[in-house]
Amino acid sequence: MEYENENAGIELFLAHMNIEDFIQEAENFYCVGEEVEAGVSFEESFSQEDMDEIVETPQDLISHVQNPGKVRYGTASDLLDFVNTVSNTPSSSLLEVGEEMGVLLNKTDMVIKEGHYRIDLDVLLFPWKLTYKPQGPGHVPKGSFGKVHLAQDTKTRKRMACKLIPVEHFKPADVEIQARFRHENIAELYGALMWEQTVHLFMEAGEGGSVLEKLDSCGPMREFEIIWVSQQVLRGLEYLHSHKIIHHDIKPSNIVLMSAKAVLVDFGLTVQMKDDVYVPRDLRGTEMYMSPELVLCRGHNTKTDIYSLGTTIIHMLSGSPPWVRRYPRTAYPSYLYIIHKQAPPLEDIPESCSPAMRRLLEHALERVPARRSSATELLNEEALHPSREDQPRCWSLDSALEEGTHPLLRQHSQLSDSTQDSSLYTEDSGHSKKKGSLYVDLGALAGYYNLVRGPPSSEYG
Ligand SMILES: Nc1ncnc2c1ncn2[C@@H]1O[C@H](COP(=O)(O)OP(=O)(O)OP(=O)(O)O)[C@@H](O)[C@H]1O
After folding, report:
1. Which residue among 91, 186, 199, 444 is least packed, with the fewest CB closer than 10 Å?
2. Could you tell me the pTM of the whole model?
3. If residue 164 lies in a helix (H) or strand (E), which one and from where to where?
4. Which tens digits make up the pLDDT trace of 54-106?
5. Superfamily of 71-131+143-204 according to CATH
6. How far, in Å, is the centroid of ligand 1 from the Cα of 255?
7. Cα separation of 411 and 383, whole Å?
8. 186: Cβ below 6 Å to ligand 1?
9. Is the beta carbon of 210 within 6 A of some atom in ligand 1?
10. What is 324-387 written as a DSSP string?
11. Around Cβ 239, how many Cβ atoms within 10 Å?
C-alpha cells in the first residue's frame, strides 16, 4: 500500500494495529524444546569429583577473575554469572589476566586439563572450508563484532564453532538465550572462555555454512531447499515465540546449515518479552529484513520475526534481499522509509515462485501483525508440505534412494554422520573431493533427505 504522506501512513497503519490481538493465543510454555533450569539437568549427570570442578557461586567467579588460569565445568547459570562478571570487570583488571578462564557446559566433548582449556593446545581453531566454495585457504566469517572459527577439541575431536568477541564489545545478552534455552534448531552453547581480551563462545557448528554464504556462492536456492530451511527456522521460531522470545535478526546469515538440520545463530539482539508487546528503546535488526512495525518503533511482538523470515525467503528465492533490485543500495543509503511506506515487498517475489509458496509469503509478510500468521500456522501451510508431483526433483531423488539403484546415492547413504564425529586428522575418502554440480546438489539436499555427507575432512588436516 502506498501512502500519500508519511503522517497519513502512520495514522492509517496505527488504525489497523490491534495490540490486544498481537498474540493470538496464550503462549504454550515448556511444550517443545527444553529450558535449562538452574543447572539441575547438568549437575545431576556429574559425579562428586566432577562437582568439585563446578563453579558454585558468583563469588567464586569473581575470585575466578582475580585468580585466573581456571576453566571449569558448570551450569548454565554458572556460565551466565561468569560472563556477567567478565563484563562488569574493568578492562584494566582483565588486562592483567594472563591465562584463560571460563565455564564449559559440555563435559562430554570438551576436556579440561587441570583447570585449563588452552586455545591452540586443547582446542584448535580453523578457517571453514565449504564444499561449494573453491579450494583455498578457507574463510573466517565475520559479524559486526566477532569472527567465527571452526574449532576442534584435540582429545575428543568434537567439532564446534568458536565465536571470538573482543571483550569491549561483549554483552552477556549475547549468550543469555543460548545458555537458558535449548532446542534442536537453536545453536547449542557449549561454553565461554575469556582469553587475551577476547571472549570465546563455543557452540554447535553449522559446517555447511550460513544460508547467505550458500546464496552468495550458488545463487538463488531451489524451492525444495527453501522449504526445508523454512521448516527448520519455523520450528526454532515456534519454540522461541512460545517463550515470548523475539530473535530480532532473522536473515540468511543467521541461519547455518548442518548435515541434517539448520539452526539459528546470533542471539545478540534477542529479547524475552515481559508483556505482550515489546516497546524498543532502539532499532534492532538488519534493515532489509525489518518489519514495518519494527521500523515504526512503537511496539512489536514475536510476529516481527515471521516478517523477517518472509523477507529471508524472498532472498533465498531471488538471490537478493528484498528491495535492493528495485531500490539499488548505491542510491538508497537507508531502506527504513521505503519499508515504512511500501512494505510488504511482494513485488520482489520471483515469477517462478509456486502459488503455494506465494500464499505462504503473503501470510508471512502481512503488514498488520495481528493478521500475520504465527510460526505454527506457517508450519501447516500447504507450501511446506508439497505433494511429490509438485516436486519432481525430490521425487526422483527420493525414489532413487528408496530403490537404492544409483551408485553415487548409495555411496552417500552409506556414510556415517561424519559432521559430528569425523576428525580433522583422519584421511579423506575419495568421494568427498568430488566437484561439479551433482556434488553441490547433493550437499544442498543433505538435510532435506537426511543424506549424510560430512565435510571433506582432509581439507582441514
Ligand atoms: N554456530 C555457527 N556455525 C557456523 N557458522 C557460524 C556459527 N555462528 C556464526 N556463524 C557464521 O559467522 C557469521 C557471523 O556470526 P554472528 O552473526 O553470530 O556474528 P555477529 O557479529 O553477531 O554478526 P551480525 O551482528 O553482523 O549479524 C554468521 O553469519 C555465520 O556465517
Report:
1. 91
2. 0.76
3. strand 159-166
4. 333 445 544 555 554 599 999 999 999 999 999 888 877 777 677 899 999 98
5. Phosphorylase Kinase; domain 1 (3.30.200.20)
6. 9
7. 31
8. no
9. yes
10. TTTS-TTT-S--HHHHHHH---GGGS-TTS-HHHHHHHHHHT-SSGGGSPPHHHHHTSGGGS--
11. 23
